[in-house]
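hi support,

uploading two proteins for the ticket. first:
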Amino acid sequence: FCDPHPTLGDKFVVGNPAPPPANPSPSPAITAKTKLLLTAGPSQVITLKTAAGKAVKSMKLGTYTVTVRDRGSDHNAHIVAPGYNRKTTPLSFKGTQTWKVALKKTGTFRFLCDPHAAFGMRGSAKIVR
């Protein structure tokens, strides 16, 4: 118990506190062997994840198999990357497609729902060597 600081209870640090935890290192870039899942909808959410459920933030050059799930007739799934541009059509399409996505240049892999991108239904991953 500390008379000047009764709210501290029975535990307090004298001297310098422990340093804050180090920032976790970023996830390594996924490789083309990784199967990906791009899901649009049914709510206003679009995600790009590995088959294990991890969000994709960085990808290496290569050809990826992307399972595209369009879960809402008012959404679409659209991928734009250097040398690649494809989307589900027509907009009323609701279902699953499998795409081969060849990434041959570094840059940004963008995925979005065209009608709702301005409302946040978009994302991206970095394409690295």
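and the second one:
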Amino acid sequence: MTSISNQTNGDWRGIIVANEGADLPDLPEKFSAVRVTFPPNDLHELGKGSKEDFLDAFRADKGRRVLSGMLNATDSRFFMIVDDDDFVSSRIVQHVSDHRDANGWTIDHGYIWDDGGNFLFGHDDFSHLCGTSLIIRADLYELPERFEDASLDWIKSMLGSHVRIANILAQRGAPLTKLPFRGAVYRVAHGGSHSQAPSLLRQYFLNRGVLTKPRRWLRNLRKLRVLGESHRREFFGKTRSNPA
């Protein structure tokens, strides 16, 4: 929430979708909560069931929650779905405000960050890696008036998957463009990650497939950036050494 609250333009609101009875901290200004009573996702942790079963259950669970939040903000001009363990650039709302008639954007350029680490890894296919990677004009979702009017297939494709909707919109004649700056940080290697994404070191430097290809290893090394004060201000809303 600190990251989202750090926007340079204040024309935004944040909606947190949480289960009934779930503990939430005191919400900052501009945030509100929508409570839901969906059944638990039995395949919540990767490794339970097949990968396809896991992804299908994830899309359904995430999509239902996203729809509940969107139906409580139908006056919004744009929507951006933000996973609870990621961080966003402080420049996003201003960019959207400057291009209010756009269809929306994919965040193709972002960073990966080890929880508590001092380095960022530049990733240039970010929208296929991280769910915090889409900004879409609200009317393009064609939201139903009531939750009950939405089919499960629509929920999974339009709201539960971050890799399907860009192609769907392009086929409708409403393509998304690439956000012209690094727009988000994907946090990995921390206890709250349901995807169990490996650490930067393991994924991009100590992976056997990388170690046997020195040129790839060197390319990855060039993508590393020291987590500096400007990054902390833009993405974390903090100036201390290790954002939380």
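thanks. also noticed: The first strand starts at residue 14 and ends at 19.
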